Amino acid sequence: MIDGFTEEEKRGFYKAIYSRRDVRSHFTLKPIEDDILLKILHAAHHAPSVGFSQPWNFILIRDIETKKKIKESFEDEKNRSSQLVEEPKKSKYLSFKLEGILESPVNLCVTYDPTKFGPFVIGRSRIPEAGLYSVCCAIQNLWLSARTEGVGLGWVSILSNETLKESLSLPEHVIPVAYLCLGYVDDFAEKPDLETIGWLPRLSLRDVVYFEKWNDKENEDWNSIQDMIKDNLDYA
Ligand SMILES: Cc1cc2nc3c(=O)[nH]c(=O)nc-3n(C[C@H](O)[C@H](O)[C@H](O)COP(=O)(O)O)c2cc1C
């Protein structure tokens, strides 16, 4: 007999998934207790990884000078990327709050080290990106664990990797994958901020599920689930 989940445990699992949010505001001043931070880091460290290579490292950051440097990089990159979009979207984009670097008590950089347990890693020979995918699995674990503990997390990718490497003294071969802002929050929004402000809608499952071949949305071997998908029930 496998060790299954009780109905209550299942509810908790899906609650974490559907109520997780990317958080950029609503951070409170309450520090994250070390035991909670430890739980979150352990959850991240128990993610799957290609060939069990565990190619991640987690750099915890509190130093205000480091945070200020990263924030500067964010401002530069935000302005630079705004040149890529025309008005009126440009002004809209510039008005969005897209980071909480200084307001969040803990910043965390998750890195990828392709040399760990290398050079031969099972499963990475033909698809070298599998190493990076593993780090993303760790980040998702971290995100869900944080949500479960009531800790908000915001991912900031409007940054220069050069600045990150320099500010955090990363060796040349180590790649920064995510810069995250963590802290207790007084609210988890019901929907993604970018959905609420009308930047993009959530696609329906019908838009993203194909049967057997790319773009095939109708296939009679899959009738029953196709009909269920068409009903478009809200699982959140
Ligand atoms: C790889 C990655 C990079 C992201 N970078 C940013 C960012 O720079 N700034 C930001 O405000 N949100 C960032 N986000 C958060 C997304 O905007 C957010 O996940 C999405 O709008 C859906 O909202 P939700 O996470 O609350 O469900 C990033 C998310 C991912 C997965």
Question: What does this 3D model show about the protein?
Answer:
The chain has 236 residues and is an alpha+beta fold. Helix content is 40%, strand content 12%. It has a four-stranded antiparallel β-sheet with strand order 1-2-4-3, sandwiched between helices. Helix 1 (7-19) crosses helix 5 (130-148) and helix 2 runs antiparallel to helix 5. The chain is globular. The model has no long low-confidence stretch (mean pLDDT 96). Bound molecules: flavin mononucleotide.
- Decide which structural class fits the backbone: alpha+beta
Helix-strand sequence: HHEHHEHEHEHHH
User: What is the radius of gyration computed over CA atoms, rounded to a whole number of angstroms?
Assistant: 20 Å
Number of strands: 4
Descriptive keywords:
binds flavin mononucleotide; 236 residues; single chain; alpha+beta
What is this structure, in a nutshell?
With 236 residues, the protein is α+β, with helices and mostly antiparallel strands. The chain has 9 helices and 4 strands; from the N terminus they run ααβααβαβαβααα. It has helices spanning 7-19, 34-45, 64-82, 89-95, 130-148, 161-167, 193-196, 205-208, 223-231; strands at residues 56-61, 106-112, 151-156, 175-184.
